[in-house]
Design brief:
With about 240 residues, the protein is mainly β. Helices cover about 5% and strands about 45% of the residues. The strands form 4 sheets. A 6-stranded antiparallel β-sheet has the order 8-7-11-4-13-14.
């Protein structure tokens, strides 16, 4: 099947000047506490993604054993995580340039601690940050921290409509079944100096130190390197 890359990411177009200025210094990477017995393990590469149109893809598919950075990541933690940290969700933004239906989302997410499970969701945009979930998936049995390269692949055979020029977010989060989960969203290894839209939701209502961003709200800015992810669709 031939895939045509006809969409890109207007990476910064929807972020306010203030958010740009905030940059990535406010955002948190994963805690330094690793999962037990974590090693730099290489796993078999995932099959090529489905779909006929590449909306966005920063996964290094030409090198199956280096699809993403095994050992650098942004943290995602439920409110009861075992790291005694505050809750933290991460999101990467993209803007399609034509109307499509999203049929697949790939992310590089690895296990840190707690329940080996996380939730992946496609959100619309509200005021430059994630708004409402359009579709969500739950995944278990993630690869261990500091491993590469096994992608988590979410599919939507019927497709989730996205509109040209509208902003959307791929969100990695926990849910009611993974309150004590901590996972890592691995960084990409392509275009590592290019800044892309990124948002974090932080809350220390249950536990943890004060957030580096405002509590209980999404905060948007940009990051480089960005988390590794891809979005595919059909017309």
């Amino acid at each position: 099947m031939i895939r045509h890359t006809i969409l890109g990411m207007t990476a910064l177009a929807f972020l306010s000047t203030a958010a740009w200025a905030a940059g990535q210094s406010q955002f948190e990477m994963a805690p330094s506490v690793p999962a037990p017995n974590a090693t730099a393990l290489h796993l078999p590469p995932s099959p090529p993604p489905g779909g006929t149109v590449t909306i966005f893809d920063n996964i290094n598919r030409k090198q199956p054993q280096n699809e993403y950075n095994c050992c650098a990541f942004y943290g995602v933690m439920g409110p009861d995580n075992l790291l005694s940290s505050h809750m933290l969700f991460d999101a990467m933004g993209f803007t399609p340039t034509t109307n499509l239906k999203v049929t697949e989302i790939d992310v590089a997410v690895s296990y840190n601690s707690g329940v080996n499970e996380f939730s992946l969701a496609l959100y619309n945009d509200k005021g430059g940050v994630p708004g409402t979930a359009l579709k969500a998936w739950t995944f278990t049995n993630l690869p261990p921290q500091n491993s590469c390269c096994q992608l988590t692949i979410a599919t939507a055979p019927s497709g989730v409509p996205v509109v040209a020029g509208q902003h959307y977010w791929v969100v990695v989060r926990t849910d009611h079944a993974s309150l004590n989960t901590a996972v890592d969203w691995n960084m990409n290894v392509l275009n590592t100096t290019t800044h892309y839209p990124f948002a974090q939701y932080c809350s220390n209502d249950v536990q943890g130190t004060p957030c580096t961003t405002p509590n209980d709200v999404w905060t948007a800015g940009t990051v480089a390197p960005a988390p590794a992810f891809a979005v595919f669709g059909t017309p």
